[in-house]
Design brief:
The chain has three helices and no strands. With 65 residues, it is mostly helical.
Amino acid sequence: MCNLSMGVYESGHVDGYEDGYEKAMFAIARRMLKRNRLTIEEIAEDTGLSVEKVQALKKEMESLR
């Protein structure tokens, strides 16, 4: 593989990993919110998501009920 191709491959690999990791953290945050034992701030800290993202997720979940 040439250097350019290798750079594109590595960039795509990193982007895919980060996207998958964030999706996993959202899934964990959903389970934590369903249990209703932790604050939004604690969930954000434990998952690495921002407080704003966890709040938005909570609102989304509430609208689906």
